Amino acid sequence: MIYQPVPDYHMHTPRCHHASGTVREYADAAIALGMKEIGMSDHSPMPKGYMDDWRMAPSEMHSYLTEVEQVRDALSPRLAVRVGLEADFRLGSEAGMARMIELYNWDYIIGSVHYIGDWDFDNPAKLSHWDEVGVEEVYCAYFDLVAQSAKTGLFDIIGHPDLIKKFGHRPPEGSQRVLQAEEVMLQAVKKSGCALEISSAGLRKPVGEIYPHPSMVSRAAELGIPFAYGSDAHGPDAVGHGMDECLSLLESCGVTEVCSFEGRVRSKQPILHAK
Ligand code: ZN
Ligand code: FE
Ligand code: FE
Ligand code: ZN
């Protein structure tokens, strides 16, 4: 490790049907890496009518919270375990999401856009839909939704802010429309007070890049938007994955701190080189 470990706030459990491992196994993996803090953030249930097969059911929320709380209580103070959620932003479901968020005293909520309309564009099973759409339009629609997600005020962290690139589809080089949509999105994030996630998950996907792109990290840093790190681990082996690469990208853009959350109150931790 080049850096002292920072909190990893993006981890899933098997309740979402595409992750493996117990919360304790994620926590043990973090301890083995010398981490002092993690947060679980499994895929939120969605209000009726929006269900797909890659999230926990409303009836699983209780067991999710109980499992995370038990590990948190067992490992405190050796490892701080935060209780979070990766909530989907879909137009029309904001009120239902707000009600669900109100049900519990979360440490933080990640707001993620995985859908454009009815298309979950990051689902490998829906990859063929890319052949039917214009990449430039899709990028603009995606960043517009991310901007709207920030404006809801429901979220503390904007998850993987350029997830749209996951499979390597790219808009035309220098597309002014896309650049403008990104800028509008970052301005909305700035105004909302949300943090942006810096996620190593893209390194493990066809795109082979950190989310977000260095140009977006750099512009966000210029705007003074804070960052939180997440591996988006769907198994204990991915905890802390790519942390050095992410922190080194932040540092190269002049970012000196990352966020930490407790009871939805944000604090900052310095990015420090390992001794
Ligand atoms: Zn997932
Ligand atoms: Fe996600
Ligand atoms: Fe995730
Ligand atoms: Zn995710």
Can you give a write-up of this model?
The protein is an alpha/beta fold and 275 residues long. It has one domain: TIM Barrel (Alpha-Beta Barrel). It has 7 helices and 8 strands, in the order H-E-H-E-H-E-H-E-H-E-H-E-H-E-E. The strands form 2 sheets. The protein has a 6-stranded parallel sheet with strand order 1-2-3-4-5-6. A two-stranded antiparallel sheet has the order 7-8. The structure holds zinc ion (2 copies) and fe (iii) ion (2 copies). The site of one fe (iii) ion has 5 residues, from loops.
Describe what is shown at a glance.
By secondary structure, the chain is an alpha/beta fold. The protein has seven helices and eight strands.
Fold blueprint:
Layout: H1 23-32, E1 37-43, H2 61-75, E2 80-88, H3 94-102, E3 108-112, H4 135-151, E4 157-158, H5 176-192, E5 195-199, H6 214-223, E6 227-230, H7 243-252, E7 257-262, E8 265-270
Parallel strand pairs: 1-2, 2-3, 3-4, 4-5, 5-6
Antiparallel strand pairs: 7-8
Helix pairs in contact: 4-5, 5-6
This protein binds zinc ion (2 copies) and fe (iii) ion (2 copies).
